[in-house]
From TrEMBL, chain A:
This is Dolichyl-diphosphooligosaccharide--protein glycosyltransferase subunit WBP1. Pathway: Protein modification; protein glycosylation. It comes from Hanseniaspora guilliermondii. GO terms for molecular function: oligosaccharyl transferase activity. Component of the oligosaccharyltransferase (OST) complex. One of its GO terms (cellular component) is nuclear envelope.
Automatic annotation (TrEMBL), chain B:
Its cofactor is Mg(2+); Mn(2+). It catalyses: a di-trans,poly-cis-dolichyl diphosphooligosaccharide + L-asparaginyl-[protein] = N(4)-(oligosaccharide-(1->4)-N-acetyl-beta-D-glucosaminyl-(1->4)-N-acetyl-beta-D-glucosaminyl)-L-asparaginyl-[protein] + a di-trans,poly-cis-dolichyl diphosphate + H(+). It comes from Hanseniaspora guilliermondii. Its EC number is 2.4.99.18. InterPro entries: Oligo_trans_STT3, STT3-PglB_core, STT3_N. Belongs to the STT3 family. One of its GO terms (cellular component) is oligosaccharyltransferase complex. Pathway: Protein modification; protein glycosylation. The chain crosses the membrane at residues 12-32, 88-105, 117-134, 146-162, 174-190, 210-233, 240-260, 272-290, 302-328, 364-384, 391-408, 414-434, 454-475. It comes from the Eukaryota. Its main location: membrane. One of its GO terms (biological process) is protein N-linked glycosylation via asparagine. This is dolichyl-diphosphooligosaccharide--protein glycotransferase. GO terms for molecular function: dolichyl-diphosphooligosaccharide-protein glycotransferase activity; metal ion binding.
Length: 451, 733
């Protein structure tokens, strides 16, 4: 274990200089050796096809260590849990798994009806709202001939095309000896496959999940975009059935998704700027527009601004670790301008010339000063979250920015009144002085007062 | 020896001039130096709360220039509403000190820090106040120089005025009292001479006053009252007419140039009396000219109809205009001037300010000592003569005596008139009794009634000596009060005990906390605290606040109050909605500091209760028998509210006993079991004496769970959970 660790550190350190860092994946299990041999196709897929640095650890003897001593850093990038039959595992507690997850690791969990009831992985899943069925609860399909083999070929059972693309509804996945799970209302849980209406997860009299209440595969993504996936049956990973139907495709998709190699939205930039009209000195009729950032010219009420979001979608990471980006297509990205309550919500539209740019187009700021939040929050099931915001003050008009009184037509009548009153007053004074009788005044000399 | 009478006189007058100059220099010296106690005892620092805002505004002015200052949109206060600070302040103080700074640094090339200008601003202006008080008294009271000098001496050291003008209390009042006296002096001058130029000067001085302090409304009402009384007494004259008309027109137009005042002079009821008197005096003028052309009999008839018509027209007009909202109703502070219980019932925010409480009677003696009983004598003497300008002093003293009794802070406006009246009394006492030399001469001359003369001499001596004694006591009292009561900056506290080497120990928790905020939090962090500390957080820590001492938005203050008085979960919600990062509270329980947040807590309940009576209920914070308790008997709402939890977080156990501590302010025993754990907030900083405690809002849970649940999950012993089917709400995919 320690050798693996130090080796991993060495590789990490070394690869910093030489190649792109290979992802380190820890496969944790408590299987007997002959059972482990069933996973060769899957582990080969991880290590050869994806070029991951895979470490396989059996927890039966020495347990496992996934965190550094201060729990601040993860020793591996990703975790894969085979179904545990043990309950207590040295070095692996519910809290440690949570730490690993919150530190930025991704976790893939295989379910199985053989799985023990109180193992830490199950507790971790319960903690985030996923409740896999207990030991010995098996999901059966009452439509099928062989009840424990679930052949999932109906399009409506596949609930997330970002995780497993079944847009054409032609894929079939088969699970054997599967468990199911219940999930709570947390919006961060993304169901992948649900039970069909004729499936039931139960053990004798006790029912865990009936028809479409239960899910055969679910995923979870936290606010840092770290991912967990749970697949109800370990059979799909086994060499025996991995090549059946579209199982291999399914496993690949889920693995890629879980390890953040697809369906990741990358925000290249989020900015907003003012579009100001500038009247050129030469020709007063020709207006030209200039864009000014907030730093150049702080916004004031009623200014015309544009909000831009540059985004692209990570579709795949190839064997050499090169990321493959594609344009992201959506018409439901929404910009929100808010000061406690939202003032505007504007749908972003895609720029026809630049396929990475989404823009609100020009819009006028509200006639309300204050400190506003420019925010885009785009949470979609299966995609990584976009949550960008910028808090900026929108100031009021300065006293010199209002139109002058003589520019307002309505005020002319008042201006005329003011002018005429003044004129008449002056005229009156002049006339009063010139027409009144002269009063002869005598100056009386006064003695100067002395203190 | 051929010194003619004239030369003798001129020598005497130049000696008296030199003496007067010397007296003034001494006065200014006394006024300034006694205000420096705070700098000597503590340090050169801006005091209290409001001065911190003024100081911050002045720094902005000096840095950005007047134009930007005038249009300053402040995004660091009242988050997220912001405040158009430039348009909602009285800029007189800042512009004056900015001008002083500019003059010294840019023109005279003396390098002065703007902070020092601000700290020493009030002492510097107190000297000018003394000069204007001298001029005012002299002009009001028969050109009596002795009274003038005495009043100047009194105002220079009277504690009532010093309380607001020690070095460091950089508040509007520091300059406003100077302007008050100058405006009154110029008004008296204008009224006596009828000169347009004096009236213009009065108007300009009034404009300056308007730009400096909201208390200008006092002048706006006092001068019309003076004129109104004179008119009622039948003392209308063309002098009065020209003085008032010029003052009113120019003063009002000028005052409307201040953005904060705006159209108030013609729209608010507070200003209506001056407009009414302006109208009235026009009618008097008209009547006066009618009187000179028609017969007395006809004039009487004319008068009768005119008066009835005018009164009914005026009252009707007032009602109609108020009804249609053209003139604003009186403000809350105005109502609370007449009914001291009004504020408590209707506008708790006004009542919550300690400055707005009624004055306790000992504070009259405390602030003015023996002047307070000379004050009525002076008023009486003025009554005896009752010239036009005496009526002004009488009106001023009657009006202000009432106001000072209603609101503590108006003690400040009463002090000058107390000084003036006392000076009038004393000047009369001395004028007669100081002629000792002539009495001695009379006694020396062997006249018939030598015994009587001797008695007179002795009585004069006794009077003079006893008053001298009073004066000495007065000076001592003033010095004592200034150095002990009015020099504390309230930002730094004296602990009362001393070090091993005898030097005093200071309690500097406020600055400790503010500097922690300044150096350890993000520059755009938002700090929620009760409004009292808003200005200081802005000034010391330079962080964004939700509410501050400006108190212009009651609802916003109520939001903070609601957050403090709600349960933790609800508070977290409210504060997150307003992007708050930190919550700052004042806790005096360890130190025995009375003015802490728990003692103000009922206001944090009452103010939101006025807006959301369904959500906040004052009664639920009391025990069953109606007491406000914080110990075991405290009500559940009290124990669950955020303020309680934050105040006593980790408090039990710090005084030796591992499970209990005593709150030294409220004398309550706080047991560990009363203090519920904080689940949504975490303590980030507590100062040395626990006076200021700062909490941070925990980040949202990454997995979208409720923070309370997360806390419970982390802190309860994990039992072996039997695997039961969870009770889940139906989910829509």
């Amino acid at each position: 274990m320690t050798i693996a660790c130090s080796f991993k550190r060495f590789v990490t350190f070394y690869s910093l200089f030489v190649f792109a860092i290979a992802k380190s994946v820890l496969f944790v299990h408590d299987l007997a050796d002959e059972d482990l041999n069933k996973y060769t196709v899957f582990t080969d897929y991880l290590s050869s096809e994806n070029n991951y640095d895979v470490t396989i650890v059996n927890v039966k003897n020495n347990g496992v260590k996934v965190l550094s001593d201060d729990k601040q850093t993860n020793l591996f990038d990703e975790l894969i849990f085979a179904p545990f039959t043990m309950t207590k595992i040295k070095g692996l507690t519910e809290k440690n798994i949570m730490h690993f997850y919150e530190n930025g690791g991704n976790i893939m969990v295989m379910g199985s009806p053989k799985q023990s009831n109180n193992n830490p992985v199950r507790k971790f899943l319960n903690n985030i709202g996923i409740y896999p069925s207990p030991k010995n609860y098996v999901t059966k399909d009452f439509e099928a001939d062989e009840e424990t083999t679930l052949v999932l070929n109906k399009g409506e059972l596949f609930l997330n095309n970002y995780i497993f693309n079944n847009n054409l509804r032609d894929k079939t996945v088969s699970f054997e000896e599967s468990s199911s799970c219940l999930i709570d209302t947390n919006e961060m849980i993304f169901p992948i496959i649900r039970q069909s209406d004729y499936m039931k997860n139960f053990n004798d009299e006790n029912i865990w999940a009936l028809s479409n209440q239960g899910y055969l595969a679910v995923a979870f993504q936290n606010l840092n975009n770290n991912r967990v996936s749970w697949i109800g049956s370990d059979s799909v990973f086994n060499d025996d059935s991995i090549f059946e139907q579209d199982n291999y495709d399914f496993i690949k998709s889920v693995t890629k998704w879980t390890f953040q190699e697809k369906a990741m939205l990358k925000v290249l930039s989020f900015d907003h700027y003012q579009v100001a009209n500038v009247t050129s000195d030469v020709n007063e009729d020709s207006n030209s527009e200039v864009t000014l950032s907030f730093d150049e010219e702080p916004y004031k009420v009623k200014d015309t601004v544009v909000v831009d979001l540059y985004v692209e979608l990570l579709d795949d990471v190839d064997k050499d670790g090169n990321e493959v980006y594609n344009p992201f297509e959506a018409d439901d990205i929404q910009f929100e301008l808010r000061m406690i309550d939202p003032y505007y919500r504007i749908n972003l539209s895609k720029d026809l010339n630049d396929n990475k740019r989404y823009s609100t187009g020009k819009f006028a700021l509200p006639d309300q000063f204050g400190i506003f939040t420019f925010a885009i929050k785009y949470y979609r099931k299966g995609l990584s979250y976009i949550d960008v915001k910028d808090i900026k003050a929108i100031r009021h008009f300065a006293h010199s920015e209002y139109p002058r009184s003589y520019e307002i037509r309505n005020s002319w009548v008042y201006l005329c009144t003011v002018g005429s009153v003044i004129a008449i007053w002056i005229a009156f004074v002049i006339m009063f002085i010139t027409t009144s009788k002269r009063v002869r005044t005598q100056t009386i000399s006064k003695e100067k007062k002395v203190n | 020896m051929n010194i003619s009478n004239n030369t003798k006189k001129s020598i005497l007058s130049s000696i008296s001039l030199v003496l007067k100059l010397a007296i003034f220099i001494c006065l200014i010296g006394a006024a300034t130096s006694s205000r420096l106690f705070s700098v000597i005892r503590y340090e050169s620092i801006i005091h209290e709360f409001d001065p911190w805002f003024n100081y911050r505004a002045t720094r902005y002015l000096v840095k950005n220039g007047f134009h930007k200052f005038l249009n300053w949109f402040d995004d660091k206060t009242w988050y997220p509403l912001g405040r158009i600070t430039g348009g909602t302040l009285y800029p007189g103080l800042m512009t004056t000190s900015g001008a002083v700074w500019y003059l010294m640094n840019k023109i005279m090339k003396i390098q002065v820090n703007i902070r020092d200008v601000c700290v020493l601003f009030a002492p510097a202006f107190s000297g000018i106040t003394a000069i204007f008080t001298y001029l005012f008294t002299k002009n009001c009271y028969n050109d009596d120089q002795l009274a003038g000098l005495l009043s100047a001496a009194f105002i220079a050291i009277a504690p009532g005025y010093i309380s607001r003008s020690v070095a460091g209390s950089y508040d509007n009042e520091a300059i406003a009292i100077t302007l008050l006296m100058s405006t009154f002096y110029l008004w008296i001058k204008a009224m006596r001479t009828g000169s347009i130029s004096w009236a213009c000067s009065a108007a300009i001085s009034y404009f300056y006053m308007v730009s400096a302090w909201g208390g200008y409304v006092f002048i706006t009402n006092l001068i019309p009252l003076h004129v109104f009384i004179l008119l009622l007494m039948g003392r209308y004259s063309t002098k009065l007419y020209s003085a008032y008309s010029v003052w009113y027109c120019i003063g009002t137009l000028a005052s409307m140039q201040i953005p904060f005042v705006n159209f108030q002079p013609i729209r608010s009821n507070d200003h209506m009396s001056s407009l009414g008197v302006f109208g009235l005096i026009q009618f008097f003028m008209f009547g006066d000219s009618i009187k000179s052309t028609i017969s007395t009999k006809n004039f009487k008839i004319f008068l009768k109809f005119a008066v009835i018509g005018l009164i009914s027209f005026g009252i009707l007009g007032l009602f109609v205009l108020t009804y249609f909202g053209l003139i604003a109703p009186w403000t809350g502070r105005f109502y609370s001037l007449w009914d001291t219980g009004y504020a408590k019932d209707h506008i708790p925010i006004i009542a919550s300010v300690s400055e707005h409480q009624p004055t306790a009677w000992p504070s009259f003696f405390f602030d003015t000592q023996f002047l307070i009983w000379l004050f009525p004598c002076g008023v009486f003497m003025l009554f005896m003569e009752l010239q036009d300008e005496h009526i002004f002093i009488i009106a001023y003293s009657v009006l202000c005596s009432y106001f000072a009794g209603v609101m503590v802070r108006l003690m400040l406006t009463l002090t000058p008139i107390i000084c003036v009246c006392a000076a009038v009394t004393l000047s009369n006492v001395f004028k007669y009794n100081l002629r000792i030399w002539s009495t001695i001469k009379k006694v020396k001359n062997k006249s018939d009634n030598r015994f009587t003369e001797l008695c007179v001499l002795i009585s004069k001596l006794i009077t003079v000596l006893s008053f001298l004694g009073y004066l000495i006591l007065f000076v001592q009292h003033c010095t004592w009060v200034t150095s002990n009561a009015y020099s504390a900056p309230s930002v730094v506290l004296l602990s009362g005990s001393t070090d091993a080497d005898g030097s005093p120990i200071f309690i500097d928790d406020f600055r400790e906390a503010y500097s922690w905020l300044r150096y350890n939090t993000d520059e755009d962090a938002k700090v929620a605290a009760w409004w009292d500390y808003g200005y200081q957080i802005g000034g010391f820590a330079d962080r964004t606040t939700l509410v501050d001492n400006n108190t212009w938005n009651n609802t916003h203050i109520a939001i903070v109050g609601k957050a403090m008085s709600s349960s933790e979960e609800r508070s977290y919600e409210i504060l997150k909605e307003h992007d708050v990062d930190y919550v700052l509270i004042i806790f005096g329980g360890l130190l025995g500091f009375n003015g802490d947040d728990l003692n103000k807590f009922l206001w944090m309940v009452r103010i939101p209760e006025g807006i959301w009576p369904d959500e906040v209920n004052e009664q639920s914070f009391f025990t069953a028998d109606g007491q406000f308790r914080v110990d075991a008997a405290a009500s559940d709402t009290m124990k669950n509210c955020l303020m309680y939890k934050m105040s006593y977080h980790d408090f039990p156990g710090i005084m030796g006993n591992p499970t209990q501590s005593t709150d030294r302010v409220r004398g309550a025993t706080i047991d560990e079991s009363h203090v519920l754990p904080l689940k949504y907030f975490e303590e980030v900083f507590t100062t040395e004496n626990w006076l200021v405690r700062i909490y941070k809002l925990k980040d949202l849970d990454l997995e979208g769970r409720d923070l309370g649940d997360v806390y419970d999950m982390d802190n309860t012993q994990t039992k072996k959970k039997s695997l039961k089917k969870p009770k889940l709400e139906p989910r829509i995919n």
